[in-house]
Design goal:
- This protein is an alpha/beta fold.
- The protein is built from 22 helices and 17 strands.
- The chain has a seven-stranded parallel β-sheet, with helices on both faces. A six-stranded parallel β-sheet has the order 8-13-12-9-11-10, sandwiched between helices.
- β15 and β16 form a beta hairpin.
- α14 runs antiparallel to α15.
- It is globular.
- Bound molecules: adenosine-5'-diphosphate.
Length: 527
C-alpha cells in the first residue's frame, strides 16, 4: 500500500470513524486530490458525500459544494460540523441568510476556517460573490445532484445550466460532479454542459437486488392496496399518489380500514407536514400516503414497501421512489398500479407545455409505458435504462419481479429479429421505433410518405402480426443490446455491434421474447 493510501485511510478514520472506504470512494478521492475532474454516478446511499467531504477537510482552502435544496444543505452542514472536533468548518451560503450572517460566512472563508461551503446555484451566480471567490483559495468545486443540469433528468433546474461559466470565472480548480440518477442521455448532457467530457467517470451499479418489482393493472385499486397492507401489519410503507386531493382521500380510506396511515403533501400546513413525517420516521405511523414532495433526503432504512397508486412520469422518478424501500438491505416490495388512461392524462397535461418540454416528457412517458407493459425482467429493463446490461437469468436479484416469478411463455423470434435488423440497415439507421413499425405493418404515415417507403419491397412485410408484437421486438432487441437508441436524437434506432454480428451471420443467438402485456382495462369491471 502506498504511503498516500495509508494516509487517506487514516484521515477517513480520524474524521468519519470508518475503517474502510465504500465502493470506489478511495480512488475517487485520490484522483480528485491529484487535480482530476471527476464524474460520480452512484445510487442513493452509495456514499457520495464522503467523496467530496473528506478531500475538502484535508485540502488547503475552501471547497465549494453546489447543492439544489436549502433544506438538504442544512442537514449536510450539520453532519459535517458534527464530525470535526473543531466545529464550524462547513457553512451555507444562500438566500436564507441575512447581511450579518453572510458577512460572517465571508469572514470565515477569508480566515481559512471554512473547509466546505454549500452554495445554492442562484447564489453562486451573484456578481459580487464571484468577485469574492476569485480572491480566496478554492480547493475544488463539487456539484451535487448534477442531474439538475439536464432537462432529461427528473429535477431540471435552469440555474444549473450556467455553472460552467461561473466556475471558470472563479478559479481553475478540479470539478467533481455527482448524481444518483443518470441515464446515458443525462450523463451525456451533464458532461457536455459542464465541459467535463474528459473527466474520469466512476459508475457503480444501480441494481437494488433486494427490491421486488410488480406492476398490476389498476383495477379495484383501493381494495387491492388495503389487502396488500393488511397482509403486512405493522410494517412501514409509502403510498405515492399524483394529486394532493388523492393523498388526503386515500389516507382517510386507509384509516377507515384500520390502517395507521397519515397524509403528506406540500399543501399541508408546515406543522402538520413535519409532524406527520416525524410520526412516520418514529414508527408512530405505519404508512405515509404522499405526493412526490415526500422522500427527498429522508433516510428511513426499514421501509418495507412502496406503492404507486398512480404511475410516475418517468422511470427515473420510479427508480428514486421505489428506491426508498429496503434501504437496510431487507425486504422491499415495490408495487405499482398501471392504467394506460393515466398515461393519456399525463400526455394531455404535457400538451400545454412548451415544445421541448413536451417532447422530452413524451419520450419519458414512452419508457414508462414500455416498462409497465413489458413481460421481460423488470430489473433488466430498469438497469438498461440506466445504461447497464443485466443478465436476467444469473444477475443478482434476477428472480425478484412479477415477470420472473410468473414467467410468461417465450417465443423464438430470431427470424423476425433478423428481418428487423435488415430493415434498419437498408433504410440507413435513421428511424424511430414508431416509424419502423409503420413500415413493418404497412401503415402509411407522414414519414413513410416523405421517404417513399410505400414503394419498397419491405413495406408491410410483418402485417400478419399486430403492432404490439413488433413494438415488443424492437424494445426487447434494444434492451438485449442488438439495437441502440441514439443519444443525440433520443429514439433513432441504430444497430449495435452485437446486432451487426447477427446480420453477418456471425452470431447464432436465439432471440427469445415474451410479448408485452395488453392493458386495455376498459373491458374490466371495476368496483
Ligand atoms: P449518497 O449521498 O450517495 O446517497 P451518503 O453520502 O448519504 O450517500 O452515504 C450513505 C450512508 O453511507 C451514510 O450513512 C454514510 O455515513 C455511509 N457511509 C459513507 N461512506 C462510508 C464508509 N466508507 N464506511 C461506512 N459507511 C459509509
Amino acid at each position: 500500500m502506498s504511503a498516500k493510501k495509508a494516509n487517506l485511510s487514516g484521515e477517513l478514520k480520524k474524521y468519519f470513524g470508518f475503517s474502510t472506504f465504500k465502493g470506489q470512494q478511495e480512488e475517487i478521492i485520490e484522483n480528485l486530490l491529484n487535480g482530476k475532474d471527476i464524474f460520480v454516478l452512484m445510487p442513493t446511499g452509495g456514499g457520495k458525500s464522503l467523496c467530496y467531504q473528506l478531500p475538502a477537510l484535508i485540502s488547503e482552502g475552501t471547497a465549494i459544494v453546489v447543492s439544489p435544496l436549502i433544506a438538504l444543505m442544512k442537514n449536510q452542514v450539520d453532519a459535517v460540523n458534527g464530525l470535526s472536533s473543531e466545529s464550524g468548518v462547513a457553512h451555507v451560503l444562500n438566500s436564507s441568510l441575512n447581511k450579518t450572517q453572510t458577512k460572517q460566512v465571508f469572514d470565515d472563508i477569508t480566515s481559512g476556517r471554512t473547509k466546505l461551503l454549500y452554495v445554492a446555484p442562484e447564489s453562486l451566480i451573484k456578481e459580487d460573490y464571484v468577485d469574492f471567490f476569485k480572491d480566496v483559495k478554492i480547493s475544488f468545486v463539487a456539484i451535487d445532484e448534477a442531474h439538475c443540469i439536464s432537462e432529461w433528468g427528473h429535477d431540471f433546474r435552469p440555474e444549473y445550466r450556467n455553472l460552467k461559466s461561473i466556475i471558470d470565472k472563479i478559479a481553475d480548480v478540479p470539478v467533481i460532479a455527482l448524481t444518483a440518477t443518470a441515464t446515458p442521455k443525462v450523463q451525456d448532457d451533464i458532461q457536455k454542459t459542464l465541459g467535463m467530457t474528459n473527466a474520469l467517470v466512476f459508475k457503480e451499479s444501480f441494481n437494488r437486488a433486494n427490491l421486488y418489482y410488480e406492476v398490476r393493472p389498476k383495477v379495484n385499486v383501493d381494495r387491492e392496496i388495503v389487502k396488500f397492507i393488511n397482509e403486512r401489519k405493522g410494517k412501514s410503507g409509502i403510498v405515492y399518489c399524483l394529486s394532493r386531493r388523492k393523498v388526503e382521500e386515500f389516507a382517510q380510506l386507509l384509516q377507515v380500514n384500520g390502517i395507521n396511515a397519515l397524509p403528506y403533501h406540500a399543501g399541508l400546513d408546515q406543522k402538520v407536514r413535519v409532524a406527520n413525517q416525524d410520526k412516520f420516521l418514529m414508527e408512530d405511523a405505519d404508512v405515509i400516503v404522499a405526493t412526490i414532495a415526500f422522500g427527498m433526503g429522508i433516510d428511513k432504512p426499514d421501509v418495507r414497501f412502496v406503492i404507486h397508486y398512480d404511475f410516475p412520469k418517468s422511470l427515473e422518478s420510479y427508480y428514486q421512489e421505489t428506491g426508498r424501500a429496503g434501504r437496510d438491505g431487507g425486504e422491499g416490495y415495490c408495487l405499482s398500479f398501471y392504467d394506460p388512461k393515466d398515461i393519456e392524462k399525463l400526455e394531455k397535461f404535457l400538451a400545454q407545455k412548451p415544445v421541448s418540454e413536451r417532447e422530452i416528457g413524451l419520450q419519458l412517458l414512452n419508457e414508462v409505458v414500455g416498462y409497465a407493459e413489458t413481460s421481460m425482467s423488470r430489473r433488466q429493463y430498469i438497469l438498461y435504462y440506466f445504461g447497464e446490461i443485466f443478465d436476467p437469468i444469473t444477475g443478482e436479484g434476477a428472480k425478484m419481479c412479477d415477470n420472473a416469478s410468473n414467467p410468461p411463455k417465450l417465443k423464438d423470434a430470431t427470424e423476425d429479429l433478423k428481418k428487423v435488423l435488415e430493415l434498419i440497415s437498408v433504410t440507413g439507421e435513421k428511424f424511430k421505433s414508431k416509424d419502423l413499425i409503420s413500415v413493418i405493418v404497412g401503415k402509411e404515415s407522414a414519414v413513410t410518405k416523405s421517404y417513399k417507403l410505400e414503394q419498397t419491397s419491405f413495406f408491410g412485410f410483418g402485417k400478419e402480426d399486430k403492432d404490439n408484437y413488433w413494438k415488443t421486438i424492437l424494445r426487447q432487441a434494444t434492451v438485449q443490446n442488438f439495437l441502440q437508441k441514439d443519444i443525440e436524437t433520443y429514439g433513432v434506432l441504430k444497430i449495435s455491434e452485437k446486432g451487426q454480428l447477427v446480420l453477418k451471420g456471425e452470431l447464432e443467438h436465439s432471440f427469445l421474447i415474451a410479448e408485452d402485456r395488453e392493458f386495455d382495462l376498459s373491458q374490466t369491471k371495476a368496483e
